Amino acid sequence: MSSRDGDVTDERAPQPGAPATPGPALLADEPVDAAILESELVYEGRVWDVRSDTVAYGDGQIVRQYVDHPGAAAVVAVDEDGRVLLIQQYRHPIRLRDWEIPAGLLDIAGESPLETARRELAEEADLVAFSWEPLVSIFTTPGGNDEIVHLFLARDLMPADDVHARTDEEADIRLEWVPLADAVAGIFAGRLRNGILTVGVLAAAERLRGAKESSGA
Q1: In the chain, where are the structural domains located?
Q2: FRET label pair with 101: which of 35, 60, 185, 211, CA 20 to 30 Å apart?
């Protein structure tokens, strides 16, 4: 993963202790060390770039253009009543004010995904959380960009000391606390289609269901 402000650990690499070759019952994404013969910066953007790589693959070469993305962190904030925090804001590429969860770019050098998640929860929802758990990490569009998003479950929520000023699409951001089961229902009904929200809400619902069963509640 590239960073404009300094080195960032590539969390897509195999994790320590992971088996080199998964067995039949254990599937895992497989790293490929394909030689990049040429890499061209096609477009340098304000937030992300577009690159064109010529790659040695198999017995030949392939050329692929993709968005070079810094990555992001996202937060599934669940309160003591089992409600999840959703935010709504305008997204120009899809021409919708879609429902999302708080999220932001990994664009500050030295800031971990968890620190980014904490910052985004404060900036977008004026909240702090005292309980944090990693949920999942996902590639959003592996055929078109290298973005990885790290999702966290945040609980034990309190109002932040400061209220943040918001501009552009965030100026008219809307916050809504929704029962987790209603958010799950909205996903399967096709009313909530944001990918990061979908993964985060379903992962949190499964995590909390498992915790409830293991506690015997």
Answers
A1: 36-68, 72-215
A2: 211
Residues 104 and 89: beta-carbon distance below 8 Å? no
Nearest to 154 by CA among 89, 198, 207: 207
Residue 154 CA to residue 42 CA, distance in Å, equals 38
Which segments within 71-147 are labelled E, that is strand? 72-77, 83-91, 96-100, 103-105, 127-139
Q: How many C-beta atoms lie closer than 10 Å to residue 117's C-beta? A: 28
- Concerning whether 170 is annotated as a catalytic residue, the answer is yes
| Catalytic residue from among 80, 170, 176, 206 | 170
**Tell me: the pLDDT tens digits for 76-97?**
999 999 999 999 999 999 999 9
Alpha-carbon gap, residue 99 to 187, rounded angstroms: 11
Cα(194)–Cα(149) distance, integer angstroms: 13
pTM: 0.84
